[in-house]
Amino acid sequence: MARTDMSKMGAADLKARLAELLADRVRLSAKVQAGTDQKAAELRRAVRKGIARVHTLLRERERTQG
């Protein structure tokens, strides 16, 4: 889960990043459920913020190209 400057990404790259973030969220949710990782809940919140950011950027791309 590396930090990336998503504001410069194109729509295809954003969709790929979204898929990565969704996979991260699923993996972290499993750890939270199992109680195996203390930082998993905090990381999961950060991933949710990333997902929201990607959705926002995708909507902006669609508006400017549509």
Word description of this protein:
It is a single chain. The protein has 66 residues and is mainly alpha-helical. The chain has one domain (11-65). Helices cover 76% and strands 0% of the residues. The protein has 2 helices and no strands. It has helices at residues 11-34, 40-65. α1 (11-34) packs antiparallel against α2 (40-65). The radius of gyration is 13 Å and the shape is elongated. The mean pLDDT is 88.
**Strand pairing plus helix content: what structural class?**
mainly alpha
Which H/E pattern describes the elements?
A: HH
Distance between the termini: 31 Å
How many distinct folded domains?
1
**What is the residue-mean pLDDT, rounded to a whole number?**
88
Low-confidence stretches: none
Helix run count: 2
Number of strands: 0
Content of β-strand: under 5%
Q: Describe the sheet with the most strands.
A: none
Question: How much is the radius of gyration in Å?
Answer: 13 Å
List keywords for this structure.
66 residues; mainly alpha
